[in-house]
Amino acid sequence: MKHGLVLDDNPPHFDGTRYFNPPSWRPDNAVSGRTPAQRFRNILKWQLSLRPRWPDALPPQKPHTLTAPAPGECLATFIGHATVLLQFGRQGREPLRIITDPVFSERCSPFRSFGPRRVRPPGICFEDLPPIDLILVSHCHYDHMDLPTLRILARKGDPLCITLPGNRSHLEKAGLPRILELDWWDSTQAEGARISATPALHGSARTPFDQNKALWGGFVIETQDKTVFFAGDTAWGRHFDAIHNRWTTIDLAILPIGAYEPRNFMRRVHMNPEEAVMAFDTLKPTQAMAIHFGTFQLTDEAILEPAARLNLAFQDRARPFKALENGETLALSPPPASR
């Protein structure tokens, strides 16, 4: 595993008031000429326009149950959208359990009766979740930071919530007992694992008045046996090269594939399936699983399109990159010495 610095792998991303995406990491090396107010108006105009509508619900999927991992094994369960339950088996101890961007609410919205609504239920019922040791929150958008879910998790145990700078003020409203902010490339030891914050090309806001006041990013989780990368929300860019330069061995990459249309401005914050494959090729993980598709209608692509395009773009590859059903689990086997 490689952790050495390379040229321009940590360019400035904070101007003293707001965070920003380093232009050198953009594929076109360009800065948007629009002001935040102009971008907000354009997005609002698009949101209010006639858009292809997803169905209110999809046919029920087969039920899934959780199992405990063997020592050295990692089980990654896709609960829905960007919510993944990671269970790392440990010899003679309870598994380490980490949940990413937990959202179990019916809507990802500041309003109870308005905003994107689920078309697929969580793949695992909230009541069936095992005790959670660590919560990873990639940024403050409502489809990733769900305060009602976080409040219940806070009451169920004593989880440590790890996030990026500027998000503490939001998370404190959920009553989480422990919150730790990590800037890009910062690391901490927690519950026997090393957690590092990684860059992403995205943005943040929970109101029209706090745009980019909090940072966004992903995480690398390193245990004794496995290394898992959770990308959070991100566009395609050269930050994936910087991540690969530091972690040349990744067992599992969790990459977003949805919410990419209309492409003229979604390309700056979200990858489409073909770009997710490019990220896979840059990171060179042993395998990957897809997130950020098929649960909430946030953009214009058809509900089944991201997974279909991923399968088409990734066909005939030796290493798997799967779009799982909600509740389905991907197993990372123990290393040979742990069998």
UniProtKB/TrEMBL annotation:
Keywords: Hydrolase. GO terms for cellular component: cytoplasm. GO terms for molecular function: N-acylphosphatidylethanolamine-specific phospholipase D activity; zinc ion binding. Residues 97-293 form the Metallo-beta-lactamase domain. Pfam families: Lactamase_B_2. The keyword Ribonucleoprotein does not apply. PANTHER family: N-ACYL-PHOSPHATIDYLETHANOLAMINE-HYDROLYZING PHOSPHOLIPASE D (PTHR15032:SF4). This is Metal-dependent hydrolase. It comes from Gluconobacter cerinus.
